[in-house]
Each structure stands twice: as C-alpha cells, then as structure tokens.
Amino acid sequence: MGKTDELVGVVDRAATVVTPTAPPARPSPVRPLLALTAAAAVGITVLLLARAGVLDRPAVQAWRTVCLAITVQALPFLILGTVLSGAINAFVPADLFTRVLPKRSALAVPVAGVAGAVLPGCECASVPVANSLIRRGVTPAAAFAFLLSAPAINPIVLTATAVAFPGNPAMVAARLVASLATAAVMGWLWLCFGKEKWLRPAVRHTGHQHGHSRWAEFRQGFQHDFLHAGGFLVLGAMAAATFNVAVPRSVLDAFSGSPWLSVLFLAGLAVLLAVCSEADAFVAASLTGFSPTARLAFMVVGPMVDLKLIALQAGTFGRAFAVRFSAATTVVAVAASALIGGALL
Amino acid sequence: MRRLAQTALLALIGAGLLHTALFTDLYLRYVKEGLRPALIASGVALLLLGAVNACLDLRGNREPQEGHDHHEAHSHGHDHSTAPKVAWLLALPALSLLLYAPPALGAYTAAHSNGKPVATSPKERFPALPATSPLPLTLTGFTQRVQQDPTLAIRGRQVQLTGFVTPAGAGGGWYLTRIIFTCCAADSQTVKVRVHGSDAPPANTWLAVTGTWHPAGRLGTKTAEAALDVREVHPIAQPVNAYTDDLPLTPS
C-alpha cells in the first residue's frame, strides 16, 4: 500500500493550494519547478515500484483494478453532471428555478427532493448539478435535498432494487420513502441550522453575462467543473478501493448477529465501500446474514454519503461543509432507515 | 494549471477512455458491458473539447475571462483559465488505462470473499435437464440444481462447469470460481464450487471441468454442498465475458 500513502500525500499538498484564498495568478518562477519535481518524483517512484514488482502483487493489482473500476464507472456520470451543470449555468434563464419552485423554502425542500427522480444515473452526477442550482439562486436547502434524493430515488435505481429483491416490493417502497425523508429532513435542517459561511463562496460562476458567447461560457464551465470534480473523484476512488480490498467480506458475518449493531455496521460499510447507487441493491441483497432494516440502511446511506462523494463535495462546496453535511446525513439516514424499516419490513 | 496542460489532460483522459472501450475490450475488466456507449461518448466529448481548445489556442484567440476585472475574479478564487492542481490526479487512471492496465479481479479477491448466496428459485424454475452429456451449466445454475431442485435431476449427471482456480487456503483443495459484478469491479461477488479429485492447478487458471456432484449433504436441500467430483479437467482461454456467470464465450 506504499503507493496509496504516497499518492494521498501528494494530493494533500495539492488540495491545500485550491482553497478560496488561492495565491495570485501570476505564478512565481519557483512553482513550475516545484510541480516538475513533484511529477518527476511520482514518476520515478512508480517506475521503482513497478521494477520491484510491487505493482504486480495480487493485493496491489486488486487495488488498482477496483480503483480504476470506480473511476471509469463514474466518469460518464460525472461528465453528464458537469455538462448539465455547465448548461444550467450558461443557457437557463436566471429566474427559471426561483419561478418554478415554491416561494417558501420549507416547501421548496420536499419539491426539490421529489424532483431528484428526474436525474438518471448515480451519485457523481448530482453534485455538480446541485452546485449549479445554488449558483442560479435556488435556496441551498432545496439544492441539497435534490443532491441527496437524486441518486437514490431515480427510476433506474429503483428498478435495480426491485430486480435485486425479487418478490419484495416493500424493500423498494422503504428505500424510496426513507431516502425522500432523509433528503427532506436534511434540507429542513439546513434551513434551521445551516450557515452560508460553511459553503465555499458560491459566486464562482455568475451565469450568462452580457456580451459573452454562451457556448464559450458553457465550454469553460464544463471544463473547469469536470477537471476539478474529476480530481476529487480519483482521490475518493483511491480511498474506497483501499477499504474495498482491505476489508475481507468474511469479516461481515461477525456483525450480523445484533440487530442494532448491524444497522450501524452496514451504514458504515456503505460509506467505506462507495458502491455506485445503481449496484448497491445487489450488494445489499447478497448480505443475507443481515436483517432487512440493516440492508435498507446500506441502500439509504450509500447513495448519500460515501468516500468518493465526500471527496467530491469537499472539492465542490468546501471541506467545512462536506464534513458537517456528511456526518449529519449519515445520522439522519440511519434514523430514517431504522424507523421506516421497522414499520415496513 | 495552464490552458495547455488542461488541454493535454482532457485529451489524455479521452484517449484513455476510447482506448479501453472502443479499440479494445479492456473496459470489460472494470465495468459492465452496458456502459460501453457511455464510455465512448465520454471519450469523444473530452477529445472534442481538447481539440476545440487547441484550435482556439493556435489561432491565438485568448478567451475573455469571466470576471471583467482580473483582480476581482481572483479575490473570489475563480478563474476559468486555470484549474485546480488536484485535477492532475486524473492523469493516473488515464495513463494506467493506456499503458499499464491492471488485470481483471481474480483468485486473490475470490479467496477473500464469501461465496455469493444463490438466489432461491421457485420450484417451477427447474425444468427437465437436456439430455446432452456432459451438460454445460453455470456455477450458479449448478448450485441451484444441487441445493434447491426438488426433482433431483442433477443426480448422476455429467456436468461441465467453467471458471478459474482459487486455492482453498490452509486446508488444501481448490474451488472453481467466477467473479460477478453488476456495475463495476467495486461491487464484485464470488460464486464458488468446491472441486474434489484433482490436484489444484495454479491460481487464476481458466478451466472447463467435467464431473458429477460430490455427494455431501442431502441433495435438493441447503445441506447439499456445491461440490464436484472431477472426471476431466482441461484449460481454456479466459472467456470474453469473464465477469458474468454465463456459459463461456471464448474469444474468436
């Protein structure tokens, strides 16, 4: 795992440069030199590791495969999300969303949550879209409800759930209700307790500006968002792959006995494994030793909080936000799964 | 990150995606087959974006910044002509796809995972078996026939199973295994059938194994072990659809 540590170290350094109080644009002559040295160091290390055969050990190979799989799987959805977000930024009139959504924020939250059903695909697409909604004047609470519900309640994911749990429509209903409830509660929590200062200043994109080509704005917005979010996606994929390979599935059985511990344990597992929301129902279905409520928690928490999402959110909205939001979402999602699972399953 | 570097990075990722999904079958090691059109579209989109950037740069057409006042834009930490350094991480998967693609998951992962529980089929899902001998079956199909089929049709039948070798660990012996995933290799699950009566070939060897059910437990109930007494073993090429538990499609 030497390579992981080293790469994460590099990322940390890189990430600190990306804070809003970024250094002046004109790079000092030292910075390209530093960047070159860092790149050379990474390159030489990789070559040395390859020569020593470390990269070809079974565990490292499995790590590389899983890491690459998560990245490759997520890239098309990330591109879909950033294209949508760029288009919203450049082409959608500024007041469209504020006209369509109810005026009262408390009502806008559940409406935005239900609207999540229209964005097909998994969770990587929803982060940039939610960000562009906030930029276009949608109240953050409503945008976050959309962010949370979209990957969990769209038709593709619900169909996959129905296929994975044949003859058990209650599981699909429970997933839909618990996910919507979590999204709405999180939106309302943000209305009550959220602070704008946790969000990275959202003035980054200002929408269409008079005198600029809309297409150029679209292209620049897409490129910027994609490169930015993509970097964090790779970071999240590395972390998730590490757990995916290091935690043998046979450990799971140890926790399946106690009903309460098992709910918490599967919720934590969903965060660490970062399985795509289109596939998590199949993984949940395979965890046969666990109670239905625990498996529900796995499917409710997974699309809302996982390592690659936390990395994406930290990149998009800022670290202060990602930490608080993910922690609160996990608690709310576990509570919602326990309540609704207890009632329906 | 400068414009030129961004253009190069976009083109690199685009090339990586096209290499893996359009020109080779490499993507099947990582993601499901259905994602292919999306991967190709993504690769084309990124390459196009890179090409447009390059054309504009060649024409010396510096694009107007989004904030009119440069200083104002930077006080918000925003300038579309630079991208954050973290984007460089995208070069790693792109280069890995192009130059040093890791293999499909194999015996290491299979040995560390539980066997995938086999879905229970209703009784009418067990039609009479075809008369061919040996009878080709999937590992899942074999397990269902052994553990769930009330007609016990599998008794005494010669079956042919395909999969790769996973050593059983300290106790010796080995399993014939397939790794299955739904979306990508991160959600992989393993199906295993224990093999008796033959020494373990090297891990990850792809085999077609012919034999009969190894009597252990009561056939047609959960107590029956998914195990095979081997009559014949012969190596095969890794099937194209290695990540499904289907009858093998061998590369043509």
From TrEMBL, chain B:
<keyword id="KW-0812">Transmembrane</keyword>
<dbReference type="InterPro" id="IPR048447">
    <property type="entry name" value="DUF1980_C"/>
</dbReference>
<dbReference type="Pfam" id="PF21537">
    <property type="entry name" value="DUF1980_C"/>
</dbReference>
<feature type="transmembrane region" description="Helical">
    <location>
        <begin position="36"/>
        <end position="56"/>
    </location>
</feature>
<feature type="domain" description="DUF1980">
    <location>
        <begin position="155"/>
        <end position="243"/>
    </location>
</feature>
<protein>
    <submittedName>
        <fullName>TIGR03943 family protein</fullName>
    </submittedName>
</protein>
<dbReference type="InterPro" id="IPR052955">
    <property type="entry name" value="UPF0703_membrane_permease"/>
</dbReference>
<keyword id="KW-1133">Transmembrane helix</keyword>
<keyword id="KW-0472">Membrane</keyword>
<dbReference type="InterPro" id="IPR015402">
    <property type="entry name" value="DUF1980"/>
</dbReference>
